[in-house]
Amino acid sequence: EMVMTQSPATLSVSPGERATLSCRASQSVSSNLAWYQQKPGQAPRLLIYGASTRATGIPARFSGSGSGTEFSLTISSLQSEDFAVYYCQQYNNWPSMYTFGRGTKLEIK
Amino acid sequence: EVQLVESGGGLVQPGRSLRLSCATSGFTFEDFGMHWVRQAPGKGLEWVSGISWNSNNIGYADSVKGRFTISRDNAENSVYLQMSSLRAEDTALYYCAKDLSVAAPTTAFDIWGQGTMVTVSS
């Protein structure tokens, strides 16, 4: 069973600072890794796919890296609208589960 | 504009059935795989089921396998989730989501609906 582990569970950062979120897969997912942002009362929004490709309309301050089992999402200079919950998701195997991590809550320090 | 609109949620007793629908517009539906993802109140995201663009590949989370059935109607631009033997732990907001890439074996989900709430309780 594939397990996606995100850390930390909560990250407190000041506006304008950099935030780095981590995601680890229990087995290799190659580059089949996506990041989503979810704000309260809203559906998730795709930020990054293929581990490092920004989705349409996503600002350049969001960047993704990694391959295999270790991945990270970096937000270079936090804006007020970036405080949200972030999920990683692997989509390496079909039709097996598209596993999500448990999320990292990014909060204002 | 690409849109996904879920419907069919509601309050249902344990053991009963419910059918969710996701109506889509703004893209060539028959070219894309579709998925259902749920989120229990205050919890994270859980992939429930997915169906490929041509219906040849269908998958389910272990938690719903044997109880839920996904299907699609390309003429109606819609995807469905038939849920049976519902349990309290199936209580969640159910999102419909679209594959990012055309006819892809696996891909991220680029468009999500706003969800339909399913509450399983006596």
Please, could you describe this protein's structure?
The complex is a heterodimer of chains A (109) and B (122). Chain A has 109 residues and is mainly beta. Helices cover 0% and strands 47% of the residues of chain A. In chain A, the strands form two sheets. In chain A, strands 2-10-9-4-5-6 form a six-stranded mixed sheet, with no helix packed on it. In chain A, strand 4 and strand 5 form a beta hairpin. The radius of gyration of chain A is 13 Å and the shape is globular. Chain B is built from no helices and eleven strands. In chain B, the strands form two sheets. In chain B, strands 2, 4, 5, 6, 9, 10 and 11 form a seven-stranded mixed sheet that branches. Chain B is globular, with a radius of gyration of 14 Å.
Structure described in brief:
The complex is a heterodimer of chains A (about 110) and B (about 120). Chain A is an all-beta fold and about 110 residues long.
